[in-house]
Amino acid sequence: xxxxxxxxxxxxxxxxxxxxxxxxxxxxxxxxxxxxxxxxxxxxxxxxxxxxxxxxxxxxxxxxxxxxxxxxxxxxxxxxxxxxxxxxxxxxxxxxxxxxxxxxxxxxxxxxxxxxxxxxxxxxxxxxxxxxxxxxxxxxxxxxxxxxxxxxxxxxxxxxxxxxxxxxxxxxxxxxxxxxxxxxxxxxxxxxxxxxxxxxxxxxxxxxxxxxxxxxxxxxxxxxx
Length: 225
What we know:
- The protein has 225 residues and is mostly helical.
- The chain is 78% helix and 0% strand.
- 48% of the residues are buried.
């Protein structure tokens, strides 16, 4: 598992896409907070969500790309095929890919949020809040990407996971989006914004991540199959 985690992290560091997403995210976040400063009296109330949403979008896109690319490469890799017939097999490979991509995405999201705060004059979210919400967001969307990646090729799985991320922004559990327990349960499993410091959000997200990874592992098979 850790070999795949480190390999994914090494690729994340070498990839120019991470730097491109970082630049785009910082610009969008700075531009959004600048407009908030000009248009609104309560700058802090608007600037922090703008910073978080820009940072999380960057982290999520990077996580999805890393997972999709890694799983596509594993399908044609002789090393992955050989490793899958040894312990822990596809389980370790998928878990390692998820862990590496999620950590890289969370780190990039946190860096993006910090740079937006430096570039703008608006109040920034607390560093712990930014890191914890980034971890929650990228770990869940990464688990969805791994699950869908066991069923489809990287492009289709990445797009489907991103569409789920968009759906996760809807107010599930409140009318008209499945009001009640069913809607709240669906919202807990869909990737989307998470509230830091909430044990309920942490518990729901952790359960969803574990459940999705277990489903992916149940569907996994050797890379050359």
